[in-house]
Amino acid sequence: MSRSANNALLFAAMAVLLMLVGAMQSWNVALAILNMCLISAIMTLGVNIQWGYAGLFNAGVMGFTALGGLAAIVVSVAPVPAAWDAGGARAILGLLAGLATIAGGIWLWKKLPVPRTARIWLTALLAVSGYGLMRLILDPAVDAIEAVEPAMTGFLGGFGLPIMFSWIVGGVFAAIVAWAIGKVALGLRSDYLAIATLGISEIIIYFLKNEDWLTRGVKNVNGLPRPVPYEIDLQGALWLHDLAAWAGIPVVDASSLIVKLNYAALFLVVLIAIFWLSERALKSPWGRMMRAIRDNEIAAGAMGKNVTGRHLQVFVLGSAVIGLAGAMLATLDGQFTPASYQPLRFTFLVWVMVIVGGSGNNLGSILGGFVIWFFWIEAEPIGLALMNFLTSGMALDSPLRLHLLENAAHTRLMTMGLVLLLVLRFSPRGLIPEVKR
Amino acid sequence: MAGNKVLIDFLNALALIGNFVLVPGIAYGSQLALGALGVTMVYAVLRFSNFAHGETMSFGAMVTILVTWVLQARGIGLGPLPTALLALPIGMLATIGLCVATDRLVYRYYREKKAVPVTYLIVSVGVLFFLSGLIRFIIGPKDQVFADGQRFIMKARAFKEMTGLDQGLAIKTSQGVTVISAIVIVALLFWFLNRTRTGKSMRAYSDNEDLALLSGINPERVVLITWIITGALAAIAGTLYGLDKGYKPFTYLGLVLPIFASAIVGGVGNPLGAIAGGFVIAFSELLVTFAYKRVVGYLTPGDWVPDGLVQLLSTDYKLAVSFFILVIVLLIKPTGIFSGKTL
Amino acid sequence: MTYLAGEGMCGGYGGVDILHQCSIGVDKGEVAVVVGPNGAGKSTAMKAVFGMLDLREGQVTMDGQDISHLKPEQRVQLGMGFVPQSANVFTSMTVEENLEMGAFIRRDDISETLSGVYELFPVLREKRNQLAGELSGGQRQQVAVGRALMTQPKVLMLDEPTAGVSPIVMDELFDRIIEVARTGIAILMVEQNARQALSIADRGYVLVQGRNRYTDTGAALLANVEVRKAFLGG
Predict the structure, then answer these.
(1) How far apart are CA A199 and CA B327, in angstroms?
(2) Which residues from chain C sit within 8 angstroms of residue B213, using beta carbons?
(3) Are both A52 and A138 inside the same structural domain?
(4) Residues of chain A with C-beta less than 8 angstroms from the C-beta of B106
(5) Are residues A281 and A218 in the same domain?
(6) Does A264 map to a domain?
(7) Could you tell me the CATH number of the domain that includes residue C61?
């Protein structure tokens, strides 16, 4: 069977699965899964840019996703005037002081013509005093901001712009952080990049959980503005009533379905755009060079290619896509919940998507995103059903049975682990292997 | 009288630092050191970063806890010491079994194929997934209490009575057990690596694989012993950590970063580095997030106490400290304090 | 019959043959030297004798036994010692530990062999507790050779032992090698410093492009006008 036919078949199978869910559970659920699949696909594309083009292992997907969520708040939430008055300007000043310290530190480190030991001490001195200065400026401002109606706001708010801008801003935030991390950790062994990205993502999450003045921390930011209509508004529309009557479903359900379809359409457009851009890049001279470097780094380096520089490009681009997906995710959720960013759920699950789909292959990444997300969600009902079946012979209140049922959800972690291990071992090229050009 | 007050204030400051930094730091440092030792040995011999080590520690702790419950149910105890210590050998055996089985079933294939280090990393992520699911499935995701026996070696109140100071210094039994175990284990490990033929052969294999093969050193045997040691270390580290801070499955994933930071800062692949790194990270975390308010108050003349907490970073950012130290080390001296394996 | 002999060897590292009907060998107590221009296949020939290369044709015999199918580790067990050109010591271990590791396959008491090596290389006794990685190039080579001697081999093969060492150290090394040969061990050596090496050689092989070009005693080769002109700089 030809490649295209093979691919088409796989995607068709995926569609069938979704329709089965729609038929057997509910269409709302099926569409919800579809939307998350679309976002996961974009995330996987981002990770694949780093892995497939350059062989980089980014263990900090979670952090970059969260930065996208941050962008969603910063861009779309309405500003809180009282908070700005209380300490907004001062907070900005404090942040600038911090950035200046970092910039100064980098300049000092790289440019100052003094012996190494002196440089280390000077940079340390600058860092410590700069940090102290920043805290001096920032702390009172932060306290003031957080004191403004903490139950409702207690933070600066955002710029009140349409939320879809945040999708781009999310990419930018992620790109900036990726650039900084890349500068430090690229060019070292691949394991170090993994650990560095793991670390930075944990710090980002901590930052988002604790800097209430910016993000409301664990109080979360609810009610993010939407790019699609609200169900309530739709329910007032006549055409919806007609449609619902014709389809034979309640109006509420119909409104919900329409909203989800709207999201799906938006996400699909973004997905197609990213995919098309990635494919163009892959086939371009730049893409060929990237793959040449990936396949034989030493030879490429000997030929004068700036390997680390290229890796940095790829790392930044891939992270930007992940940030974009993160903003889209926050948009879909309609809220920003720092606590929801868990490494297992994001970083490592996305890696299963990349590997299963076919590392190095964009189409494979999309499929991987779909397949793995689907099974991640469906594993719960399936696992529970399975567990019910397995324990059907036991007494209804046997502690073993209760324990098994209660913890059935965790079998999906085991399943994902097994899937990853099996694919790596027996089908390392994934469902849609990379095409050798 | 004034001179006396200065001395007493100074001692109080010391007690404060001792109670909130020194004692917890030594205990936490020992736990990190034991964890980092496991990671560093796998790195030295098998040449990859085992991201699943946190979950391995969790597994070891889990088995120990289950056995401890059985013992506790039967009224078997260890007096003032935690019963878990009796159960620990079984936990160690189970974890060793897990490590060896994982190697046979999973990692060995990639050794034979001479895969690149990044592949092993991804594979260890798969193992991580599976283990975290397995552990939660067996014991559930919630907090588990299993510590018993005498809680304190030295109670804060007793200290105050003994010394007449305002500040108390408490030493928990679990902390004492941790430190003593760590010393014993490290001594054993170093004796093994430096004084026995097998241990030396492992160092040789880690140093220069080809030359070791030429010398007739059996690679599979070296690998097996490495996993045995790593499994044992993981079980001990995991159990000690659980005794000290309580057992909750998801915390162990969060330990991966400080443990790796310890190993890298100390010099990855070098056991001495793992230990040094563990303490560097532990103390840095504590020193940077400690609120120096009262210490400053004691050390300055008179009764003045600063307004703010005098805290460099809030305690929430403990993890950030490991990370920053790691970044600094990577920038200045990537081979770490004791010059572990080069990049 | 030559104690150790690789006869009619043909083979390479992949598809292309490097060796073409190459034959080298050495007897007990002899020093045999393999020289030739760069890329002549000298190291390859020795690696083939050691078993690090698959032979397409030809065979390797030791003490009359055909050992062509044995792995290097097995040949070590039979009494072959091999000193690689580079990365030939455990840099993070002490000199004495290096020697101990050299004797790894032995289960008996190695102290006599150890003192023998120290007698041969007194500098090593001085530095026995120093890390091998901290030694100078020449001293490292001594550790490498000492390491190989710890198995009490019957044959010692050295791949360019004087690569990168100063002339004085080279002379010293060659002196030691002769001493080792005197104890009855067969020495097979690949060398870049052809003139000096041939001067201590009982047997010399000049290889060109994987083939034997000249075979004779060391002295004879040194006296040979053609050899001198082509490989020894006149």
Answers:
(1) 9
(2) 72-73
(3) no
(4) 421, 425
(5) yes
(6) yes
(7) 3.40.50.300
Q: Which CATH class is domain B2-332?
A: mainly alpha
Query: How close C36 gets to chain B, by Cα (Å)?
Result: 26
**Cα–Cα distance measured from residue C47 to residue C71, given in angstroms and rounded to the nearest whole number:** 11
Does C175 fall in a domain?
A: no
Contact C35, C205 (CB under 8 A): yes
Contact present, C90 and B207 (Cβ < 8 Å): yes
Number of folded domains that form chain A: 2
* B298-304 long-range contacts, CB within 8 A, separation 24+: B298/B9, B298/B10, B298/B12, B298/B13, B298/B16, B299/B9, B299/B10, B299/B13, B301/B6
Element (H, E) at A230: none
Cross-chain CB nearest to B132 (options A194, A403, A413): A413
Select the residue from B198, B214, B338, B341 to test the C interface by mutation, using most C Cβ atoms within 10 A: B214
Residues of chain C contacting residue B197, judged by C-beta atoms under 8 Å apart: 100, 104
Beta-bridged to residue C212, according to DSSP, are C207
A324 shares its domain with A338: yes
Residue C105 to residue C121: CA distance in whole angstroms: 22
Q: Report if residue C5 sits inside a domain.
A: yes
**Does residue A272 share a domain with residue A367?**
yes
The pLDDT tens digits of the residues spanning A195-208 come to 888 888 888 888 88
**Are B207 and C88 an interchain contact pair (Cβ–Cβ within 8 Å)?**
no
Percent of chain C with pLDDT over 90: 30
| Dist CA A182 CA A169 (whole Å) | 19
Distance from CA of B156 to the nearest CA of A (A): 32
Question: pTM of the predicted model, to two decimals?
Answer: 0.88
Chain B neighbours, 3+ Cβ pairs < 8 A: A, C
Tell whether A295 is within 8 A of chain B (Cβ). Answer: no
Provide the ipTM: 0.86
Domain assignment present for C190: no
Q: Which two tokens stand for residue A121?
A: 């001490």
Which residues in B lie closer than 8 A to residue C73 (C-beta atoms)? Answer: 213-214, 216
Name every chain B residue with its beta carbon within 8 A of the beta carbon of C88.
Answer: 211
Mark whether A123 and A162 lie in a shared domain: no
A110: in domain: yes
Last residue of a domain, one of A141, A156, A171: A156
Nearest to B98 by CA among B154, B59, B69, B46: B59
Lowest mean pLDDT among A117-131, B253-267, B328-342: B328-342
List chains adjacent to chain C, taking adjacency as at least 3 C-beta pairs closer than 8 Å.
B
User: Cα–chain-centroid distance for residue C124?
Assistant: 20
Number of structural domains (chain C) is 1
Residue A350 C-alpha from the chain's centroid:
9
Residue range A152-207, pLDDT digits in tens: 777 877 788 888 888 999 999 999 999 988 887 887 778 888 888 888 888 888 88
Which chain A residues are within 8 Å of B116, Cβ to Cβ?
Answer: 190
Q: Which residue on chain B is closest to C105 by alpha carbon?
A: B216
Does residue A299 form part of some domain?
Answer: yes
**Is the pLDDT score of A390 beyond 50?**
yes
Residue of C73, C77, C104 to mutate when probing chain B, most B C-beta within 10 A: C104
Kind of pairing between the strands at C65-66 and C211-216:
unpaired
Structural domain span for residue A147: 80-156
Whether residue C108 lies inside any domain: the answer is: no
**What is the average pLDDT value for chain A, to the nearest integer?**
85
Check whether residue A202 and residue A217 sit in a common domain.
yes
In terms of residue numbers, what domain contains C202?
1-78+196-234
Q: What is the mean pLDDT of residues C93-106?
A: 92
Looking at the structure, tell me whether residues A179 and A268 fall in a common domain: yes
Q: Say if residue A69 is in the same domain as residue A110.
A: no
